[in-house]
Amino acid sequence: MPAPRTVLLTGAAAALGTLMRGLLPAHGHELRLLDMRPVEGEPDAIVADLADREALREAVRGVDAVLHLAGISLESTFDKILKANIEGTYHLYEAAREEGVRRIVFASSNHAVGFTPRPRGDDPLIPVGTPHRPDTFYGLSKSFGEDLAQFYWDKYGMETVSVRIGSCFPEPSNVRMLSVWMSPTDGARLFHAALTAQDVGHTVVYGSSANTRLWWDLSSARALGYDPQDDSERYAAKLIAEQGELDPDNPDHAHLGGHFCTRPPVWPH
Ligand code: NAI
Ligand code: 15L
Question: Environment class of residue 172 by beta-carbon count within 10 Å: exposed (0-12), middle (13-18) or buried (19+)?
């Protein structure tokens, strides 16, 4: 295992951040925590908004890498997405650049490519090079984050692994998740690989377990050293009995992004 690395974990108060706080130390990472809300049971966590560049500079000072989970994680108004996800991610990259941090792992999302039709039958798996097709303002902000990461690599040599996370929850809760689920322990394996692999430049990977019903190509993640151990198939019989198989006539089941594609846009008001 590579030597422990100090990692700033943003979004530490929330669901995924809490899971990773529990799992990443066993991979040799020492975590510094940040969120706009207090982190339960972690009095030393930095409470700061991504809009606060000075606080971000202090937070990234001396870390080896950042695991950037903070932001709005579902559809919202464009104004809110703009502040938290677009401007917030820019402020974080600027703070990291100013403080000489060389590696960011960015929590992108399947919703950056959410309008990509899901594979059916013998269709090939979706490659990471598929064009951005965001399904929401939220997905658009993740497309922006991936482009920002590419820009900071090309312009400044700052490395990023953009992880297009599927659904990272303790268990899959619907039939779509049988294809896109990432178990939390596989999530920690993938983030660990993304934090420690050599010479990643800007690499885009999908974030899921080795699901039997996988929709996308995990080869760029495996090339970082990711070796997923879980498969959602053990939940399939129960979920299909409750909900039925994916329905070819249901628009919510037509694209990678599922119901994010069919919900109305949320305009500022
Ligand atoms: P969440 O919405 O539960 O947590 C986000 C955290 O970011 C919250 O603790 C919130 O306080 C913090 N935050 C929001 N705006 C902030 C700001 N301006 N400054 C500082 N902190 C701020 O999200 P969750 O589920 O924990 O996901 C974490 C990240 O992973 C998000 O970026 C999400 O888009 C991404 N992701 C998660 C997936 C999943 O399956 N959980 C799937 C795809 C992407
Ligand atoms: C996401 O990007 C969300 O942050 C998460 O809450 C889930 O909705 C996930 O995608 C998904 O597609 O299931």
Answer: buried
String of DSSP letters for 74-94: S---HHHHIIIIIIHHHHHHH
- Domains of the chain plus CATH, in order, are 6-261 (3.40.50.720)
Two structure tokens written together for 186: 């596989």
Ligand 2 pocket test, candidate residues 140, 167, 174, 253, most atoms within 8 A of CB = 167
Contact 197, 224 (CB under 8 A): yes
Q: What are the residues whose beta carbons fall under 8 Å from the beta carbon of 15, sequence distance 6 or more?
A: 169
Active site residues: 138
Task: Write down the pTM of the prediction.
Answer: 0.98
Q: How far is the CA of 72 from the centre of ligand 1 (A)?
A: 5
Look over the chain and give the mean of its residue pLDDT values, rounded to a whole number.
97
Ligand whose nearest atom lies closest to the CA of 141? 1
pLDDT band at 266 (very low <50, low <70, confident <90, very high): confident
Question: Do residues 228 and 186 make contact, with C-beta atoms less than 8 angstroms apart?
Answer: yes
Q: CA–CA separation, 176 vs 74, rounded Å?
A: 17
User: What average pLDDT does range 57-70 have in this prediction?
Assistant: 98
pLDDT at 3 over 80: no
What separation in Å is there between the alpha carbon of 54 and the centre of ligand 2? 30
Closest ligand 1 atom to 13 CA: 9
Q: Which two tokens stand for residue 125?
A: 């798996």
Total residues found in the chain within this entry: 269
